[in-house]
Amino acid sequence: MDNVLYHCNYMEIASLRKTCRSLRDFVDTAKPDGLVDKVMIDCDDYEGKFRLQTGEKVIEYAFTKTMDGCSMFDTDNWTWSTLLKGEDHMELLKNDFSVFLRHQKSLMQEIEINGKPADIEQVLNILKAHSENPKTRKFPLRTSKLSLIDLSAPQILLALSSVDAQSLRSLSFSCNKQNVLLDQITETEQWRRLDLNDIKITVTTAFLNSPNFSSCQIQYASISSESDIAARFGVDGDKWFFRMPNDESRVLYLDIESHEYVDIGYQDTAKVPTGAEIRIEGKPFALEQALNALKAHSKNPKTRKFPLKTTILSLRELPAPQILLALSSVDAKSLCSLSIGSQKQGVLTDDITATEQWRHLDTFCATGFRILDVRRISHLNTFSGLVSSVTAADLEYLKTTFLNSPDFQVCSMKCDRVASYFDIVTTFGVHSPRREWLFRKPNDAFRVLSLSVDSSNVRLGHRNTNTCEVTRPAEIIG
Amino acid sequence: MSVEPEVPIVQVEEVRENPVLYKIISSDNHVFTISEHAVKLSKTLWDLITNLGLTAENALDNPIPVENVNGKNMETIVQFCERHKYDEEEPEYTNYIREFVLPEWDRQLLSIDNEELFQLILATNYLDIQKLMDYCCRVIGDMAKDKTPEELRIIYGIPTDAEDDALERSASDSPGPSG
Q1: Looking at chain A, which residue has its C-alpha nearest residue B134?
Q2: Which of A143, A385, A462, B120 could bond A108 through an S-S bridge, CB–CB 3.0 to 4.6 Å?
């Protein structure tokens, strides 16, 4: 009988078990190998899914919560279901998982566990109990690959430590939360035996938050394309730098420059190439703690002698207070360019434009943020962004400042309110039907400063005097 | 060892290739000739041959009686052993068996009704031919593919729980040997 059942897959054994008492007793006693290749479990408050794959054959079913119990669906045909009155979908899923664990003895290719942390905990506890029970632990769950999705760090640890360390070669986990601590996970025997040939970018976040991490060189068989990684981090290149939440003196670097190897390690902040861009992005809530830590360390007497130096700082999807935190924690003298962006509309507060870092900037680009006081951009060489309002006096002020700035390039403003044509004419004393005014630059015979104004846009830039004087010599002022 | 002179001797073509031959007599007095390489697939027969001290010279003069296997099953077994006598040793009891595809020749050989297959398995078990046992079990296992429990009951002739209960009741109600 053992031999016959060896040629049957898990579902066939389950069917045979249902035929009669003798076979049921035999199956329960002998516990023939389930011979399943892949398993997937997915659950939430209302549904539990179980998928078994043996060779090419896949069986997937779901228990769905109903008013008076739950329904069992074949996921290939959701219109057909069996109503199980008074049954709880999680209990049924757990029971099926327990039965599966009792039978699965051979090495699986993959097990994927996916679910809301609160619900999946029950499933993981069954896996843990299986690995600790004296009767069952001689057949620990053997799988080459373990995929864990949306689990918390303790749950990742629980799952990882419950599978056979000798068999596990590949681990993949992803987590929505930023603060995943790898320390306990990396101490497990299972971790030490991993091949680590399939790096996921999420690992970087984990290393970033792991105080005991020192360095890591990973040989990979496959890796995300450079453009995918660049898209993930928001910066092009083959080497990326990440600020440490609790350490201003060092940055974490990720280098994929070497063929077939990924290097992850620390580098002195001072040695970060000046041209390198440090980019911070993420959900505001998740970054709050990290940014607070950065700020605290930038104030720490021990660490502030190694301020984080970068020429470009890009901040995406952060609210104004967090922009202030990030901006104030980098070295003001090194920072030249600041780029901020958000899909939500926000206001850049005076606190930000009052920082020393702001005063040292020469380039500023913003989308989704408004500048309240437009005169605070007058020190910039390049500006592109939104402003609340621009009066004729503001235009006069900016014109005068930019005329005297040898490095000024361009200022392009989209405005909620712009001075009227009459006010501008009154201020500059010259009419311009084309709504463009040109101003002579001191000590520059070849260029003039151009001011173009329409109902919602103001642009200040340079024009070549050769073309200007020919076409509109009378409009040149000064 | 008496052999009925009128019993036909079943010759297998491939047997002639092998100089060392043995004779086997089934329970219904059919005589089969089998080569040394083929007979080695049966642990029971090979143990018998070595214990009896049969050699190339006296093997054909000393037929081996096998009381538990009839001529029909013995014919199938001899054909199977001759067919697979030069097979390479298979890997240990691993996924090899599960992934193994039953050769068409063997599937044809084992395309017999359930009762015959059951008798063949008993004979195979007695003669201890692991490879044939694996193949027979594979055929039985394959019968279960994509079948419901109800269909399996019909295919394998399995009684339901209710029928089991009824049998138990009738067994307990019937008078014992003394009664």
Answers
A1: A3
A2: A143
* Nearest CA distance, A61 vs chain B (angstrom): 16
Which pTM does this prediction carry? 0.49
The closest CB to that of A8, out of B134, B144, B148, belongs to: B144
Its ipTM equals 0.72
Of A167, A195, A223, the residue at which a domain comes to its end is A195
Q: Is residue A377 part of a domain?
A: no
Nearest-by-Cβ selection for B158 from A3, A6, A20:
A20
Q: Which residue range(s) make up the domain with B102?
A: 9-172
Q: Which residues, in sequence order, are CB contacts of A395 under 8 Å at separation 6+?
A: A419, A424, A427, A451, A453, A458
- Tokens in use for A322? 């967090």
**B158 with A23: Cβ contact below 8 A:** yes
Window 93-132 of A: residues touching B by CB (8 A cutoff) are 106
Taking one residue from A and the other from B, the number of pairs with CB-CB distance under 8 angstroms is 53
* Total count of domains within chain A: 2
**A22 — contact with chain B (CB < 8 Å)?**
yes
Structural domain count, chain B: 1
Look at residue A287 in the predicted model and tell me its pLDDT: 53
> How far apart, in whole angstroms, are the C-alpha atoms of residue A457 and residue A20?
83
Q: What is the CA radius of gyration of chain A?
A: 32
Q: Which amino acid makes up residue A320?
A: A
Domain range holding A40?
33-195
Q: Are the C-beta atoms of A432 and A421 separated by less than 8 Å? A: no
Q: B178 in a domain, yes or no?
A: no
